[in-house]
Design goal:
CATH class of the domain at 5-191 and 223-252 and 308-324: Alpha Beta
CATH topology of the domain at 5-191 and 223-252 and 308-324: Rossmann fold
Structural class: alpha/beta
Order of helices and strands: EHEHEHEHEHEEHEEHEEHHHHH
Largest sheet: 7 strands, parallel
Helix content: 25-40%
CATH superfamily of the domain at 5-191 and 223-252 and 308-324: NAD(P)-binding Rossmann-like Domain
CATH architecture of the domain at 5-191 and 223-252 and 308-324: 3-Layer(aba) Sandwich
Radius of gyration: 20 Å
Length: 347
């Protein structure tokens, strides 16, 4: 029997790498896009280290979200597409279009190429950032909610994810010609690394383990394991009920940064000795924001807010069962330490 071919965009990324691994383990053939062919060896080495020999079952295509070249070849012959690639800057960009344009234009490029190739379904990796920012609700956020783009102080990243997802739904509704779409909206993604490239959430854990956060701001966010995010992508890819649906992915109730720090200390013991559970008062964060770019990222309308979200829909409709948030956090720390990516705390 011929195996279905699945395209995963942005194969060098944290989530994409785990999606590729999960697809190969499930018996699919995989093609992935990379902006730079030089990254292919690192990807194959990472998969091999995770126990998956991808030779013969993993193809690599060159394509960039900001250009048309390569996308028709990348989608050709694919039954499904997981569109995972999206820009995410470690710091707020000076021009928000640096994030918004690649997110929106890249999503539409992938959808148009998928339609031309006769792809059955595209699963788009969106974010909780497209759901839970700019407006306050008195219940846990769920898939009915959308980030308010008119909200004052809304950062570029939530804008980019919201606009890209809106554009995807509008395209499928108006020009999809039968192309199916499902969307996965993860909260903060943690878990084991496949290689040394660090996402923003992984950098947070690294910074804590190195003792470079002497105290934490009063911020809350969700935690989900990257392995569970990959699993949800595969479920959304094939389950008939998933067509036309979005699925919020969280490993449980939202956690304050202090609770995240404590989970690392509890799970890693002496190896997390440099992690601080002290809490910065809001006024001090806002004062520091006048002088520090890092503090400005914390001194947002989210500072001091209590919020939560639910993944009940994904669990009920697709049978998805995420790991506990603390397990994802500890797995992050374990892999950072194993890979030698944590610098010793300064005396």
């Amino acid at each position: 029997m011929t195996r279905d071919l699945v395209l995963v965009t942005g194969g060098s990324g944290f989530v994409a790498g785990h999606c590729i691994l999960a697809l190969l383990q499930a018996g699919y053939d995989v093609r992935t896009t990379l902006r730079s062919p030089q990254r292919e060896a690192a990807l194959r080495n990472a998969l091999r280290a995770a126990g998956e020999e991808a030779d013969g079952r993993l193809q690599v295509a060159a394509a960039d979200l900001m250009g048309d070249e390569g996308w028709d070849g990348a989608t050709a012959g694919c039954a499904y597409v997981l569109h995972v690639a999206s820009p995410l800057a470690a710091a707020a960009p000076k021009d928000e279009s640096e994030l918004i344009r690649p997110a929106c234009e890249g999503t539409l490029r992938v959808l148009r190429a998928s339609r031309r190739a006769g792809v059955r379904r595209v699963v788009l990796t969106s974010s909780f950032a497209a759901i839970g920012y700019g407006r306050v609700v008195k219940r846990p956020y769920d898939e009915r909610d959308w980030t308010d783009l008119s909200a004052r102080g809304l950062a570029a990243y939530p804008k980019s994810k919201t606009l890209a997802e809106r554009a995807a739904w509008d395209f499928v509704d108006g020009e999809g010609q039968g192309l199916e779409l499902a969307v996965v909206n993860p909260v903060g993604i943690f878990g084991p690394l496949l290689g040394p490239d660090l996402s923003a959430s992984i950098l947070l854990v690294k910074t804590m383990l190195e003792g470079r956060l002497w105290a934490v701001p009063r911020l809350m966010f969700g935690v989900v394991d990257v392995r569970d995010v990959a699993d949800l992508h595969l479920r959304a890819m094939t389950d008939p009920a998933a067509a036309g649906e979005r699925f919020l992915a969280t490993g449980g109730d939202f956690m304050a940064m202090q609770a995240i720090a404590q989970a690392l200390k509890d799970g890693l013991g002496a190896r997390a000795a440099a992690v601080s559970t002290r809490v910065l008062p809001d006024w001090l964060v806002r004062l520091a924001a006048r002088f520090s770019a890092t503090a400005r990222q914390a001194a947002t309308p989210e500072l001091g807010r209590v919020k939560n979200a639910t993944s009940a829909k994904a669990q009920a409709m697709l049978g998805w069962q995420p790991r506990p948030a603390a397990e994802a956090l500890v797995a992050t720390g374990e892999s950072l330490l194993r890979l030698g990516l944590v610098s010793p705390p300064k005396p």
